[in-house]
Write a structure and sequence with these properties.
Blueprint lengths: L1 H24 L18 E5 L3 E6 L3 E5 L2 E6 L4 E9 L3 H17 L3 E9 L4 E9 L5 E8 L4 E9 L8 H17 L1 E2 L2
């Protein structure tokens, strides 16, 4: 009788270990929850001062201090910031822009440059999308009228660009393109 109880006990123990292992062998983890991201407000406002005018989303805030402009997007922890300066030496301005781009390139960013040319509005420039890990600048640009003004700026995030904020980065790249397309010189 004792042997039968011991054998049954061992059999139950072996079977329980077998089924316990089987239970967790086919475990499929639940997928991570997706973050809900609100798109910028499609309604736009017009900003205009004595030098330039541009459209911006109503979910952003424009601030100006001297010749430094910033369009803040609090929902995305990012901003489009730029500086307007008189065009004194185009070659020097272009050199400084290329130097800032090459710094990001040395840090591992890939550059996708796009020519900006609107002859009817007298707008010329370059928009560079920067692609890479651990960079905080997603895009840089310059725009000029080739006579009076030189505008240089970029799209910055408060943290390094990683896979967690890739969707926000794509949305903000669209916003900077909309900004540049709406930029006009004020006569």
């Amino acid at each position: 009788m004792k042997k039968l109880i011991v054998v049954l006990f061992i059999l139950i123990l072996v079977l329980s270990l077998f089924f316990y292992k089987k239970k967790y062998e086919y475990y499929i983890p639940k997928p991570e929850a997706l973050v809900k991201i609100e798109l910028p407000d499609s309604r736009i406002s017009l900003f205009k001062d004595e030098k330039i005018s541009f459209n911006y989303s109503n979910s952003s805030v424009v601030s100006v201090k001297d010749n430094f402009y910033s369009i803040e997007y609090p929902d995305y922890s990012s901003s489009i910031s730029f500086r307007i300066s008189p065009l004194l030496d185009f070659d020097l301005e272009l050199y400084n822009f290329e130097n800032s781009i090459s710094i990001h390139e040395k840090q591992g960013a890939n550059i996708n440059a796009n020519i900006i040319q609107d002859t009817s509005e007298n707008i010329y420039g370059v928009l560079c999308y920067l692609v890479g890990n651990n960079i905080a600048t997603s895009s840089q640009f310059f725009v000029t009228d080739s006579a009076d003004f030189f505008v240089r700026g970029g799209l910055d995030f408060e943290c390094a660009i990683s896979s967690e904020i890739e969707v926000q980065n794509i949305i903000m790249k669209q916003e900077i393109l909309k900004f540049i397309q709406s930029l006009r010189w004020v006569d």
